[in-house]
Amino acid sequence: MIYQILNENEVVELEKELRKTLPGTAKIYYVIRSFVNGNLQGYEVLVDNWPSWSCIILRPHSERQVPRYFSHTYMCHSKSVTALKYFIQRPGVINWEEPVTFTGLPNDIIPVITELSRKHGATVTSKESRFMYCWTKPEPPPLPQIPDDICLGTLEQKHVETMKTDWESTSYREDLEGYFSGVVQNFDSSCVTDKKGNLLAYICMQYNGAMAMLYIRPEFRQCGYFNILLSDLTRKRLAKTEVAYAFIPVQDTQLIKLAREFGFEWVPEGNMTWIRYNPPAQPNRLSNVTKTVEAKSSNLEDCLNHFKINAIPLTTL
């Protein structure tokens, strides 16, 4: 068997299986959950073998149906790097003639895809790997006292345009407004507004279940909104018996420190990276260029001022 495309019942069975191994499988479990709930239009679920699988790939079966913000995006999970190495090279699994953004990959797979790109005369761009940090305690974090001059609530569609403006200079996704509209409609969030309804700070979910995109307006970044938002969204997730987790760049020691002080713990099996594969513009292109986007070093104040917890959809290259 080269690969198997799962039918609807098999995908539901896979979802149940992945839930048993949370939190380590959270990033693929919630992607599968999004697929089952109809939030990943145009995708299909592949495994290397069924029911004894080692690798999972969600890939577009129709780019016309896939939202622009997920164009050419393959969402991956594997029980071993070796299994994934051979699976992605099986005929028909990956269309190497088209651009591909791989998400959810173990860091050790980067050399494999880099070597494959050389064979195809392609280029590869990789992003700094992420640690998975998760709330593992049985009790939720305490919610800080909310100042009288603000309101704690949930993001709404009226906030989407503001969110787009906040992130358009740092995101490589197409149709950022459409992306945020889907996030606000389908997933949990938390926001702080003033008494007039002006959006001061917020955090939202991603399609892979991660908490991300925490943004605080510059003039309010010393007001304690970081802990308020992270506590509120974590509590919302735990109240639904869901996993509360986030991705943090491996070299961002200040953000890792903040996460640990808050109470999050590292989940090694949840670590991941992103790779962008670009086919050659011309036939027989021989050179390959590999670039790694490095996180900017910063002190604690800079960490807060530019704080964002990155996850699959908005950190691809």
Automatic annotation (TrEMBL):
Residues 7-137 form the Glycine N-acyltransferase N-terminal domain. Coiled coil: none annotated. SUPFAM superfamilies: Acyl-CoA N-acyltransferases (Nat). It is an enzyme of class 2 (transferase). GO terms for cellular component: mitochondrion. Gene3D superfamilies: 3.40.630.30. The keyword Membrane does not apply. Keywords: Acyltransferase, Transferase. InterPro entries: Acyl_CoA_acyltransferase, Glycine_N-acyltransferase, Glycine_N-acyltransferase_N. Pfam families: Gly_acyl_tr_N (PF06021). The keyword Acyltransferase applies. Its EC number is 2.3.1.-. GO terms for molecular function: glycine N-acyltransferase activity. Belongs to the glycine N-acyltransferase family. This is Glycine N-acyltransferase-like protein. It comes from Mytilus galloprovincialis.
